[in-house]
Write a structure and sequence with these properties.
extended, six-stranded mixed beta sheet, three-stranded antiparallel beta sheet, 29% strand, Immunoglobulin-like, alpha+beta
Length: 252
Amino acid sequence: MINSIIDEHRNPRMKEMRTWGMATLAILFLALLVVIPVSAVDATNSTAATTTLSKPAVSATTSSATVTVGDPMTITGVATGGNLTAGVQIWIFAGNYVNVTTTSVNSKGEFSKLFTTVGLPPATYYIFIQSPGNDGRFDINTPQVTGYTSQVMNTKTGAVIFNFTGTGSVQDAAAAQKLSEALNQQGIDDVYTKLTLQLVAPAGTTTAATSVAVTTPPVSAAPTTAKSPVSPLVALAGIGVACLAVVAMKRK
């Protein structure tokens, strides 16, 4: 120990080299604190940023925007997300006519349903294609699942929302608005797309109507920005150590 101290006094160069070494180690320590943890957080957050939360969605179209009475009409579409065990539900209504039916989807979520128009009156028909949410059930439904119906109800509460026929009933565009409001209620996770179809008499020349789709898009998780876990105090302490070492070196 005594020999070491004597060697330092006899060899100022050795002391200067040790001071430089302390400063270098302090700077390297600070660099490691800042760089290495950030890289680790980035690796974790890069996975989280690319994760997309799958939310139910449905899109559909009719075989034609205008159909002549007596001709068949097909509705095709794709449903994604959620629990599709129950398939999708199709509502078709105009005036006093209301038909609600379900159809299954394939492994890709695709579906197709053929409808007959024989005997139906010419009119503008409103079509809703409804897909169940994550619970796999139709929260907005009818007491009669398939076929002709007149009521729309909330299956969670059992409350009747409105009637297509009878006292206080609503029809056509007003019924479409009521059904949209029902499906958009808070706590209802069903999604839907809405179309219109113009059914014309065989000798008619009604202007073709354009199908309008209203779909609920998937929600993507917002990417998380990576932040360094090193606090400003730790960083400043590291810089301070480096500066003190450099000052000490210069004084010596």
